[in-house]
Amino acid sequence: KMAEALELDSKNQQAAKLNKELEALLNKKDFNLAVTEGYFFIQKNDFNKALDSFQRALALESSSQAAISGIFEAEQGIKTTKIIELEKRAKKMEKEEQWQSVLNTYNQILSIDDNIQVARNGILKAKKVILLESELDRLLSQPNRLASLDVATEARKIISDSEELKLGPRLQSQIDSLQSTLDQYSIKVKLQLISDGKTTITIERAGNLGKFINKELLLPPGKYTFIGKRSGYKAVRKTIEMNKNKTLELICLQRI
What we know:
The chain is α+β, with helices and mostly antiparallel strands. The chain has three domains: 2-95, Serine Threonine Protein Phosphatase 5, Tetratricopeptide repeat, CATH 1.25.40; 133-186, no CATH class; 189-249, Sandwich (Immunoglobulin-like), CATH 2.60.40.10. Helices cover 62% and strands 16% of the residues. Strands 3-2-5-6 form a four-stranded antiparallel β-sheet, with no helix packed on it. A three-stranded mixed β-sheet has the order 4-1-7, with no helix packed on it. The chain is rod-shaped, with a radius of gyration of 41 Å.
C-alpha cells in the first residue's frame, strides 16, 4: 500500500507540472495574440483598441518590452489623433469667425502637447482678433468720437494692423464700416455762426471763440454744444449735430 501511495503521489506531481506547463503555454499564446492584435490595430489607426490589446499583453507578461513599447505607441497615436481632430475643429471655427472657440480649442491642444507650434500661432492670432473685435465694437458704437484727432489716429492704426490678420467677411465688414465712418468724419462741414458782437461764444470742451457778429467754422462731423455768455444776461446753450453745412445763431437776449 505504501508503494501504491508513492506511485499515486508521483503521478499527481507530474499532473501538476503538466498543468502548469499547459497554463504557461496558453498564457504565451494569449500574450502573442494580444501583441499581434495590438500591432494590427496600430496599422488600422485604431489606437484605443491597440491600447486595450497591449495592456492585456502586459497583464500577462509584466516585463514585456513589446507590450510596453506598444502601449507607448498606442498612447502617442491617441494623442496625435486628438490633436489632429482639434486642429480641424479650430480651423472650422476660424472660418465661422468664432474666435473665442478658436482660442479655447488651441488651448486644449497645448494642454495635450505644449510644443505644437500651430496651436501657439493660432492662440496668438485668436487673441489679436478678439482684441480687434472689442476695439471695433467700441469705436463703431460711438462714431462721434472719430471727430477727435486722437481717436481717428487710433482707428487708422486698428485698420492698418487688421490687414495682416486676413479677416473673414463679418469682421472685414466692420473694418470697412469703420473706414467709411472715418472717411465721413475726415470731411469737414461748414458752420456759419451768427451773433451780436456782445455775446462771448465758446464750444463746450473745445475752446473760446470770443465775440463776433459772423464767424465761419469748418468742423468734422459730430455733435457740438455752443455756449453764449454776456454779463447781465442769461447764458444760452445750443447743441447741434454737424452732418452737413449749417447756420447757427447764438445771442444772449434775456436779462437777468
